[in-house]
Amino acid sequence: MNKLDFVDVLPARQISTRKSDLSSFEYSYRAEITNVYGLTNTEKLYQIRIVDSDQRHQFTFKPGQFVMLELPGIGEGPFSISSSPTRHGDLELCIRAVGNLTNFLSRVPRGTLVGISGPFGTSFPVEDMENSDLILIAGGLGIVPLRAPLFSILENRSRYKQIDIIYGARNPSELLFTYQYQMWRQFDINLEIIVDQADEKWQGPVGLITEILKHRLEAAGNNLSSNTYAIVCGPPVMFHFVCDMLINAQLPMQKIFVSLERRMHCGRGKCCRCNIGATYTCLSGPVFDYWSVLNMKEAI
Amino acid sequence: MLFKVFPRDQLEILYDILAGHHLVGPQIIGTDRNGQELFAFDYIHSFTELRIDFTSTVHSLKSFVLPPRENLSSFALANNDWEKNVDLGIYKPHVFFGLHPCDINALNKLDKVLTGPVYPDPFYTGKRKNMFIIGVNCIPQPWCFCKSMGTDTVLSGFDMFLTDLGDKYFVEIQSATAYDILMELPITEPTDEDHRRFVQLMDERNSKFTCQVDNSDLTKILDLEFQSPVWQEWGKRCMSCGTCANVCPTCYCYGVTEHVDLDLKSATKQKQLYSCNLIDFAMVSGGHNFRPDSASRLKYRYYHKHRGFQEAYEEALCVGCGRCGQACLAGITVPEVIDSVRRQEVPK
Questions:
Q1: Which residue from A261, A278, A283 is facing B308, i.e. has the nearest CB?
Q2: A3 shares contact with chain B (CB less than 8 Å)
Q3: CATH code: domain of residue A140
Q4: Which of A108, A224, B28, B148 has the fewest CB atoms within 10 Å, measured from its CB?
Q5: Could you tell me if residue A10 is inside a domain?
């Protein structure tokens, strides 16, 4: 007599719907790389479209969230969505070729089918930021996760007050999205760009991003109105300097938002690769307010 | 909870009833260099193999619910197109015969992360739901500090739990399935004498836990001593080999790799259990490593288990089985490390 007849709790047919059931774990959308633009020597902008039109229209995300992009057999990795949330399943991902997956990705042709799962993670509270001044600060690749909230903000420009973008890169050839600066400025945005090393054509300022920020804060009398939000994205070394300056200018810590980078192998709070103490960057982040970051050991 | 007793010689009958299933239990796999028997969980094929009087297994039960390597999905590749197939790898009901309280508690802790709440892991959950667990009370070993971790006893997560009273087994019943199975044995209500012997046995057992960890305010102390030079000293000893995570019943971190088959027509995505002690665990693309030295990785492991998990689930991710200390090539044990962090000095 067979006493133990526990059912196979997860029949294979369940692997078709998303969320709310266990089978969502390994589910991915099929998506096509529709366009690839070389932005610099190492970064490319990939336009990716979810193949199924229903799924494409239903796909929604919030600015700051990321997707896991998979090239079957090569690898899978987390990438910030760098396009407007209103574009649904037509995504733009800006990716630097540094590892196995990204190097392979930099060589695939248009039309390649990839797997997309997500969106995962927390987002920038762009709605809470309405009727406020905004300072967006990006260093290097940090402009990538910043672009989604920026699109969101530009689409509702009238709801926001003064907007400053401060962007720093190592040298002029590493500046990303140069073709869009003019458009951003047309939206009455104060865009300031600084590079560490100039080349012969460069006419803008040279130095660290903190110098531009210093001027901006001095112009505000080193006293940012309480009606100001800041978003900071960049390499770990940048956060302390920039955020400390903002705090010294009286900006409350909970009004400074940062996006943290960690290696994620699942995006679902299981593999622990992105764990900081008790916090899974993939579930509680990548967007954190600065107070939460200070409260975590080894966060930046 | 229901309590019953059955005669000791009926254990073989219980085994026979369950023997038609995949049955996993502790058995002898060899001897160590001192001639002591080494035990491991493995498939049992006859009652004589089953040794529920075992001391402690070298490895935990983890490999049956979280295999060291597991295929997450496979791909059929063809002309710039692919099809993804997911095999959740759920096995038929398994009977786990003879788990100590710490191992059952370890599964309960893993459940908190892996079966919920946002993205339940179907690979784990499926296997976990098809487990029939028979727990047995253990004899405390000199390296067990489960008493300090509150995992020396267990209230949930098993179907039945046996305690050896000498000529009888005292059995706690937690599930209807277990009750049905026991109805085929000559079970009786425990007498007052059985109660008395049970309490007496528990008292004796409790007095045998010699290894202790002072857990009081440990979460705060770990926060306060985050920059303590003590960690550097332990880091010098730690070889960053990851053996502790390998034998730990609650370590669940993993990495994912993908492979294309030689014929270029199929590919697999595989997960492999990992350890935060390994050098590249916190390395991100581009080469920045958030925990580049062995001290910070060792510290992180303690911090996650005794501080981070505490914050998230109000309990430590450690059951005090002491396997990590037994297996550690550098002889680092949890009680020593925690004690030295509290006292801010490292034993010579």
A1: A278
A2: yes
A3: 3.40.50.80
A4: B28
A5: no
Residue B328: phi and psi, rounded to 5, are -60, 130
Domain annotation covers residue A269: no
How many Cβ pairs within 8 Å bridge chains A and B?
Answer: 166
Q: Which of residues 132-171 of A touch B (CB under 8 A)?
A: none
Q: Are B24 and B161 members of one domain? A: yes
Which 8-state DSSP code applies to residue B57? B
- Tell me the pLDDT of chain B averaged across its residues: 89
Does residue B269 lie in a domain region?
no
pLDDT higher at B92 or B137? B137
Other C-beta atoms within 10 Å of A180: how many? 14
Largest CA distance in chain A: 85
CA distance A11 to chain B (A): 9
pLDDT band with cut points at 50, 70 and 90 for residue A12: very low
Residue B306 lies in a domain: yes
- Tell me whether residue A272 is annotated as binding: no
A78 and A184 in a single domain? The answer is no
Residue A1 is assigned to a structural domain of this protein: no
* List of chain B residues whose C-beta atoms are within 8 Å of the C-beta of residue A281: none
Select the residue of A4, A5, A8 nearest B90 (Cβ to Cβ): A8
Domain that residue A193 falls in:
126-259
- Check CB contact of A174 with chain B, cutoff 8 Å: no
How many domains are contained in chain A? 2
pLDDT tens per residue across span B265-320: 999 999 999 999 999 888 888 788 888 899 999 999 999 999 888 888 889 999 99
Tokens representing residue B151 in the block? 């995992």
What is the span of the domain harbouring residue B21? 2-69+88-206
* Type of residue numbered A79: F
Judgement on whether residues B104 and B166 belong to the same structural domain of the protein? yes
Indicate if B133 and B237 belong to the same structural domain: no
pLDDT of residue A2: 57
C-alpha torsion sign, points B137, B161, A2, B41: negative
- The pLDDT tens digits of the residues spanning B158-214 come to 999 999 998 999 999 998 888 988 998 899 999 999 999 999 999 999 898 888 888
Same domain, A184 and A167: yes
User: Are residues A68 and A165 both part of a single domain?
Assistant: no
Q: Does A243 carry a binding-site annotation?
A: no
Q: Could you count the other beta carbons within 10 Å of the beta carbon of residue A98?
A: 16
Question: How many structural domains compose chain B?
Answer: 2
A2, A20, A22, A261: best to mutate for the B interface, most B CBs within 10 A: A22
Sequence-separated (6 or more) residues with CB below 8 Å from residue B119: A24, A25, A268, A269, A270
Residues in chain A with CB shorter than 8 Å from the CB of B225 are: none
A173/A254 same-domain check: yes
A94 and A143 inside one domain: no
CA distance B120 to chain A (A): 6
- Is A274 known as a binding-site position? yes
Residue B36, class by beta-carbon neighbours within 10 Å (0-12 exposed, 13-18 middle, 19+ buried)?
A: exposed
Q: Which of residues 186-245 of A touch B (CB under 8 A)?
A: 235-236
